[in-house]
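Translate structure to sequence.
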């Protein structure tokens, strides 16, 4: 949730810096972003929600964070409510402008934030009333897509629009290429057997976003293009790549659960996997059964994976430690389960195997988004340094002129 609010805040700040507009909106998004980070900290650190980040569950810590949350968020919202009327909105702009596209972007991000917050808090409220409700992907995925897909479509044209006022017809001719790419990848995905709507749209729109994101560089001297422009292009390209990776995970993932004997080959997707051995090992506060798997991608070079089934002593619990192998075009996940006995009395081991094509694109896209944000921030810092240097240089020249006038 903080990332959604922070993304909307970053786009709003770009409008404020470039056109001196959306002042109150920017202040409000700053308050919301900080509030979401505090709420997330409270939910995780207090132990209300189970998370890998909840390394220490202490109700007293949760109570302390709740008090801080009430003071900080309540004080910020109160101050904003009292002073919002004194914050002017700055320059006006038309709906068909880059500012208008960024405002639409922010509204969609804020809507996704709202439904995510609702889906997170609703089960907690109902559980406090004695009714347990589970909210998961069947709610988050389609409802979020209702707002994410229009935002991605506006992303095609938004960076091509001019500030303050523009016409869609001016950019319509340039959009032919990304629309053709979107159509082509949609046809390819359908030919691969992808029939579910959301993965199909993700596989089609992701490459289109990548192509549309580089169009603002068209006709420019790339060496003289500002860092802020490069930051926008890199971040939007990363978003398209990330979207394609997530859609591929939903569309092409293959899962298999088997009970395999030692030495028995198993197939999952293009991988051939053989369970070579299972042996006990010990750690500082745990014991485990470790399996040795030999995996080959389409009959190629063998790689070794060692998933474990660990048993901890205090408190007594059993955890599965997965082993994975990453290729440029996907990741293989392996999990070792319990030992079972087959019908013929032979010992078997439960294996859960996943092949997730193009999942590394999610991480690559995320890194590009972070790089784009860093470039945009660096551009802003560089501009401030240049302005300060020019101001100091101007003051120095004026002082020199004044000294010469006094001497004359």
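Result:
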């Amino acid at each position: 949730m903080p990332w959604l609010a922070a993304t909307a805040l970053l786009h709003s700040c770009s409008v404020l810096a470039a056109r001196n507009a959306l002042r109150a909106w920017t202040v409000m998004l700053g308050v919301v972003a900080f509030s979401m980070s505090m709420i997330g900290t409270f939910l995780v650190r207090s132990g209300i929600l189970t998370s890998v980040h909840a390394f220490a569950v202490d109700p007293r810590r949760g109570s302390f964070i709740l008090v801080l949350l009430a003071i900080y968020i309540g004080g910020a919202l109160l101050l904003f409510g009292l002073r919002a009327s004194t914050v002017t909105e700055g320059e006006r702009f038309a709906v068909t402008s880059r500012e208008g596209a960024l405002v639409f972007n922010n509204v969609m991000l804020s809507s996704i934030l709202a439904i995510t917050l609702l889906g997170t808090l609703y089960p907690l409220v109902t559980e406090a009333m004695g009714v347990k409700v589970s909210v998961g992907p069947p709610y988050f995925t389609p409802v979020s897509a209702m707002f994410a897909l229009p935002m991605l479509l506006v992303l095609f044209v938004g960076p091509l629009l001019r500030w303050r006022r523009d016409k869609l017809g001016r950019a319509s001719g340039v959009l032919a290429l990304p629309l053709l790419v979107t159509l082509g990848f949609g046809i390819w995905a359908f030919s691969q057997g992808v029939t579910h709507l959301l993965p199909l749209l993700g596989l089609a729109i992701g490459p289109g976003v990548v192509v549309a994101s580089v169009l603002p560089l068209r006709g420019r001297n790339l060496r003289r293009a500002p860092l802020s422009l490069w930051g926008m292009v890199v971040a939007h390209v990363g978003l398209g790549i990330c979207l394609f990776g997530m859609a591929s995970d939903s569309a092409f993932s293959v899962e298999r659960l088997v009970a395999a004997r030692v030495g028995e080959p198993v197939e999952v997707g293009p991988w051939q996997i053989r369970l070579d051995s299972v042996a006990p090992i010990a750690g500082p506060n745990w014991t485990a059964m470790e399996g040795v798997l030999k995996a080959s991608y389409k009959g190629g070079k063998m790689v070794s994976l060692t998933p474990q089934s660990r048993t901890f002593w205090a408190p007594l619990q059993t955890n599965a430690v997965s082993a994975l192998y990453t290729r440029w075009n996907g990741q293989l996940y392996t999990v070792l389960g319990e030992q079972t006995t087959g019908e013929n009395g032979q010992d078997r081991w439960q294996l859960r195997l996943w092949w997730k094509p193009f999942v590394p694109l999610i991480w690559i896209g995320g890194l590009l988004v972070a790089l784009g944000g860093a470039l945009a921030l660096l551009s802003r810092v560089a501009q401030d340094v240049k302005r300060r240097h020019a101001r100091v240089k101007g003051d120095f020249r004026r002082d020199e002129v004044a000294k010469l006038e006094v001497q004359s």
